[in-house]
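Quick note —
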Amino acid sequence: MTYPVIGNYGIQPMTADEFGLPTNAESSHAQARALIVSDKSDFYSHWNAKESLDAWMKREKVVGIEGVDTREITKHIRNHGSMTAKILFDGMKKPEEYAYTNMLPEVSCEKPITYNEGASKTIVLVDCGVKAGIVRCLINEDLTVVRVPWNYDYTKMQFDGLVISDGPGNPSYCSEVVTRLQKFMSKTDKPILGIGIGCLLLGLAGGMDTYKLKFGHHSQNQPVILAGTDRCYITTQNHNYAIREDSVVGQWKVYLKNLNDDSVEGIYNTRKPWVGVMFHSESDQVRTDAEFIYDDFVSKL
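Predicted structure written out below.
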């Protein structure tokens, strides 16, 4: 965190809606493995907070370090690009080179979960680390949502559309998801929506290449432009990889691009209702520029 004081708000108690989805968070528990701050506040003052950041991190088993010049780290990253890091304690051996793996098993559900059962249309949501807001946006469209684990075989299920969720890690290590998606795409005209890593997996299944961005996109104010137009949207993003533009060929086209670094932010298929976007357009609190993504997907069901 580059902001100098962290923790003065405190942590709100976790609440859930009628479907069991957290209402004041995107996940039921912490997803970060560590937190590095300049100055940790020992006291919190938000009217709805029930515990301190320190107590919550201990309960969630998240490592933390304070007293670090985080802005100096930020300047270093600006010069050298995103890089891996590891926190070491006294007596620990320096680790070997970081081994990239498929991170989806760490964040996906373990068995299918059905939400809003009985709606006229059913969506299969492949959970690659899905945010609660995505599930809720689909429910708000009056859809039955069947959330399945990342490696679940949905190809024999009966449903109207497929959503590949957001999630962490390098898409190149998720070959099982790509292979199953290719199998499904080879024999269907059903709508497909990929979000975040879901977009990257859709791209890989469509024969495209991905690469790691020098800095990644991690903020709530990333501008994207609709390809071939002057229409710009302000979006929320959190990803380190992108689709290589020169690999978007044939019946696939670039849908949106990032105005900061000109990277691909979305793809679509000209013959079938398949779309992928790299940003998060869902929100329970405010209207976002990019909510049309869900409206367009639902209109094709």
